[in-house]
Amino acid sequence: MLGFALELAGCSAARFKNEPLAHWNPDADYRAVRQISGHRSGELLLIVAFSGGGTRAAAFSYGVLEELRDTKVPISGRRRRLLDEIDLISGVSGGSFPAAYYGLYGDSIFSEFEPLFLKKNIEGVLAVRLLRPKNWVRLFSPYFGRGELAAEYYDEVLFHGATFGDLSRRNAPYIGINATDLSSGSRFTFNQDFFDLICSDLSKFPVSVAVTASSAVPVLFSPITLQNYAGSCGYELPPWGKEALTSPDASVRRRVYAQQGFSFLDAKHRRYIHLLDGGISDNLGIRTAYERLVLEDSNLGKVLKETGHGNVRDIVLIVVNSQTEPQYNWDVSDISPTLPDILGAVTSVQINRYNFETIDLVNSAFEQWTRKLATVENPVAFHMIQVSFDDEKDERQRRFFHNLPTSFSLKEEEVDKLKAAGRQILKAHPKFQSLVRKLSADSTDGSDAQ
Fold first, then answer.
1. Which helix (H) or strand (E) holds 227?
2. Exposed/middle/buried for 268, CB within 10 Å: 0-12, 13-18, 19+?
3. β 72-75/78-81 pair status
4. Is the dihedral of CA 31, 36, 39, 42 positive or negative?
5. DSSP structural state of residue 180
6. How far, in Å, are 186, 218, 253, 264, 270 from residue 274 at the CA level?
7. 366-382: pLDDT as tens digits
8. 194-212: per-residue pLDDT in tens?
9. Rounded to two decimals, what is the model's pTM?
10. If you write DSSP's letter for every residue of 368-420 in order, what string do you get?
């Protein structure tokens, strides 16, 4: 009987397979440069990043999207929603769900996403599916785990078979879904640039599986595994890659980023890529743009021209940071904390420290790059707007948000409070208000006249 179950498991539990890429074409498929170019104002580059944090992060980010929808500014001679000017959304873990859903379905997110995801007990649904006898059999297979089970559910309820090819719809922002490479601990973004390295076709890859990888919390979910076809599609190392790997003048940071990324080219020793929660490598999802510019030798002007922003006046990065700072009672007790408490605290402290360092690093770097790029004739300003629970002015509410768990099951009233907080905190943020005033003043001065 057991032998039959194992045989059946092997037949019914096929892993989600990434398809090989027949021929490498650096100018085709789902890349930030191609998706961002040409559909929005070239004078405003608007990047939004949704952090990890389960449903808490998804709901908080959703509120920010609502506020961007309801904020209108003069762009190219007419009033437009800031939502429609978003060029790039980077999502991690819980934040990857609203990012991917908006990228695929646009404004439908405002009528569909709440009942389908935000106010759904996702953990409960997955637990029930885990207990179904047919899934016991499938889980016997080493090729089917809790990660694949979750991906099936997300595909059925949220994404309906959508692939990254579907994300290429006109006027949609570029969506970066971020996971972590288990072997190196480095960021892995689901875009064709990363899939080029393993000679795989991202356009056929399910969005549901990418989101599952991004939110695959270690132990709770099994990793999502990709097959590495490197060496089979004619991929060539770009000039900056060769320079970063071989030049003695390349910075240590540049060399390390290049070594991590190009390690995928060694298909002999890296036949499979195992991916886990993106929060392990970058819980804010803002290192994507930073690392790209470091690898391009900090040439912001070159990257802006490639994306149709050669005459940019304002570069805006809105970071929706859903990190928490829960209160621990052990500081007033002589009883040692439990192992789960210790693991939770250590993880939270390390992520929060890394978040702080990332924000400081990215902000300093972009301010420096922007100053080098700006001229008297074409001034360029960088605006970094961090939306976080620390900006909640009411201390009781602030403490409420900081004590919310990182889970995929929140009460409806908790979701409503998170959405409202996302909207209000962004709307009241001094830097956001300053940006809106500046864009309006620029239009009054005639810079946006048709």
1. strand 224-227
2. exposed
3. antiparallel
4. negative
5. E
6. 12, 12, 24, 12, 10
7. 999 899 888 888 899 99
8. 999 999 999 999 999 999 9
9. 0.90
10. HHHHHH--SSS--EEEEEEEEGGG---HHHHHHHHT--SSS---HHHHHHHHH
